[in-house]
Amino acid sequence: MMIQTHHHPSSTKGLSSLTTLLTTPTTSLLIDPPFLLPDALSTLSWISSLTPHPPSAIFLTHHHPDHFFSANPILSAFPNAKLYAAPYVLARINNEYDQKIKYWNEVLEDGLVPEVPRRPEPYPWSFFVLGGEKVGEEGEKGEGEEVVVLLGPVQGDCVDQTIFWIPGERTVVAGDVVFGRSGHVWVEELDSPALLEAWLKTLDMIEQLHPVKIIPGHMEAGWELDAEADLAHTRRYLQLFGEKVTYADKKLGVQELYEFFRDAFPQCRENLDFFLGHMANRFGEGGTVWEENRHQEVGEKRPEELSGYWLGGSGGMNGRIH
Ligand SMILES: [Zn+2]
Fold this sequence. Notes:
CATH superfamily: Ribonuclease Z/Hydroxyacylglutathione hydrolase-like
Number of strands: 11
CATH class: Alpha Beta
Structural class: alpha/beta
Strand order of the largest sheet: 1-2-3-4-5-6
CATH topology: Metallo-beta-lactamase, Chain A
Distance between the termini: 44 Å
Bound molecules: zinc ion
CATH architecture: 4-Layer Sandwich
Mean pLDDT: 93
Strand content: 15-25%
Low-confidence stretches: none
Radius of gyration: 19 Å
Number of domains: 1
């Protein structure tokens, strides 16, 4: 095994987002720094407990603040590390950057998020190579190098996400395309049937990679990863959301919606106000929509834009929205 993957859960207040570290005998690389500064500090000591090699880069899976806001102290500790995101992720960050900083600085106590979170540089390639012995002066191939593929843009809990596929280890770093079974799924941004169906297609695509390990975007501390169970959890959640919201004949009340999802997933106990409160208000009858989260205008996106990579023929779009 050349690349090893490790994951670190943020605090509950930091929404239990996962930070992933890739290590090889000679290098390391980080994916998705935490939301909150205290979690970034614990991430730093976690990194040094795992590798003597500073991360050469920090990659982001998507534009949500809980996956990039507190990169600053990590970048200060490792000044040579690049902060990268796919161009479509960076475009989404830029689209809402000012408003999200203003919102979270108002909502959270002082010192929990940076006043000016570092923005990533665009990473234009569809893969990177990690590890290996020192490459010689003539640029000959090093020993033990391994490829990591960026798959995207794909739909998850928002549009335009990247998942990281490590074929040599059959590992997927899924970001918020897969949610660990310990928590509720962020479905607040599923403004159209096309978005829901595109997310399900992303899960189908991941399944076809036959991964042995999936690192989800969120998982409470103390839970073990389980690729099959976490995929199944995310899929079941989306299917119930389809039944109760997207394809429902009648709009449920805010409280009714909240309680339905709370009771359907009794093992999910944290951050209910955030995950279920915003969702139930967004989609429940008479609810108050979280306007500060509406920068993306994704409801108009067509299935072809969202999962145009799916060339599998007429049966390929689940048949529901054509
Ligand atoms: Zn997230």
